[in-house]
Amino acid sequence: AVVSTQSTGIYKTMSLHMPNFTALFPDGPIEIQNPGSELYVTPAGSAILEKEPRKRTNDAKGGKEEESRPPVQDYMLLPEYMLAHEYPSEETVNREPGWRRFTGNIMVKAKQYPLYAIDCEMCKTTEGSEVTQIAIVDESLNCIYKTYIKPANPIVDYVTAYSGITEVILRDVKTTLADVIKHVNNILPTQAIFVGHSLENDLRALKLYHDKVIDTATIFSSGKGGSFKPGLRFLAMKFLKAKIQDSANGHDPSEDAMTCMRLVKLKVKKGPKFGMSPTGNDNSLSVYLTKQSKTGVFVDKPIVAQQHCQGLAQAIPATTDDAALDTLVRRLSSKSEFHWAHLYRLEPIYRACTTVHDMVNSPDLVPALKFLDESLQRIYTALPSDTLLLVFSGCSGFWRKPEFNGSDEAMKKLMANIVAQVRRGLLFLKVKN
Questions:
Q1: Average pLDDT of 351-367?
Q2: Residue 318, pLDDT score
Q3: Three-state DSSP class for residue 184
Q4: Paired strand residues for 314
Q5: Residues with Cβ < 8 Å from 334, sequence gap 6 or more?
Q6: Is the N or C terminus of the chain more exposed, i.e. has fewer CB atoms within 10 Å?
Q7: Backbone torsion region of residue 215, taken as left when φ is above 0, otherwise alpha when ψ lies between -120 and 50, otherwise beta
């Protein structure tokens, strides 16, 4: 967890309002120097996210350390990620009429985590987007199910250029969406993992909820960084040397589903860092975790979280501290090996003040400290045993560019003194036994 506090002196003042915090860390903080240079400073929390730890090499063998291959289920989307990216949820099924859960057929024999790629073609109706065709492909690249579907509402646009669907094609189709879902639940095993590209769109069109999903739009990088998702056609050409979606008759859902399956199988074979573009943030902690085949969860503001959604690291955007805290506490019971959360409650107070006196006398300070105190207690209570809790402060001092009319050299010395003060920070550590 990262919180914004100050140096040891002001911490002693703040700790008077944080009984849980002082009980968790009875020995107080360790004073640290935030990374940076003579004229530049990076908060320790940011440095941890951005700087990759030194790589280990196997000197005895004179070669590189072998990368382990995580199991296929480690590539499934986290529930919070699915919710944040508008995947259907249990709440969707309970709230909206016509929605169903994927149940599968317990009588269908399969291995523990079988993969089934799904792709749909949609049209526009008077009620929005509705599915007109579905294809399902198994791990052997066999198309085990493909059918046209009659939408429940009048069609206003067949989107023929993309879907390949025309009025003539659907004229005699009697199969309904309910028929399709019944059939899908009958032919697929209960432990099936759905594979697809931006699969939230297909599941919403199918009005189907399933919690085991691998999305090729998230396990591969677009090369553009941030939240940009790669297109399936781009991925097919780059990693499979295959040209898809090139027909004048529109997309073929079986071709797209087969492409997704091939991409996922290739990813699992090559490892989590495969397909993550080096033009992205290759020094980020999320990339490091992926290279070590470790799973991670990053809970932060959307603009920060999106930068760390790579490989086995999944980002969960949170626009408020309350949302970040709730998400983190829920996720701590998962099997993820690293959790990151940033709480910003003190920052607006810090930014509004120019002196320590201003800050300690701010009417907003005590409520913010109380929130942080209760938050850290919630986090610690939710931690599994044998977990290391690290709490980093922000930088020390109140940064304001000084008014100065002296020489450039004198200004540089003044700035260096200010940065030296600002680089001071605090670190709290505790292992839950």
A1: 80
A2: 85
A3: helix
A4: 297
A5: 78, 297
A6: C
A7: beta
- pTM over cut 0.70: no
Question: What letters, b where the CB count within 10 A reaches 16 and e where it falls short, cover 116-152?
Answer: bbbbbbbbbbeeebbbbbbbbbbbeeebebeebbbbe
- Dist. CA 245–CA 260, nearest whole Å: 13
DSSP reduced 3-state for 86: coil
Question: Residue 262 pLDDT more than 90?
Answer: yes
Contacts of the segment 21-26: beta carbons below 8 A, 24+ positions apart: 21/372, 21/373, 21/376, 21/377, 24/376, 24/377, 24/380, 24/389, 24/428, 24/430, 25/391, 25/428, 25/429, 25/430
Amino acid at site 231: G
In the beta sheet, which residues pair with residue 208?
Answer: 100
Q: What is the mean pLDDT of residues 417-422?
A: 65
pLDDT band at 290 (very low <50, low <70, confident <90, very high): low
Tell me the two tokens of residue 210: 């399933």
The predicted-structure confidence for 36-61, as pLDDT tens digits, reads as follows 555 555 555 555 555 444 343 343 34
3-state secondary structure of 296: strand
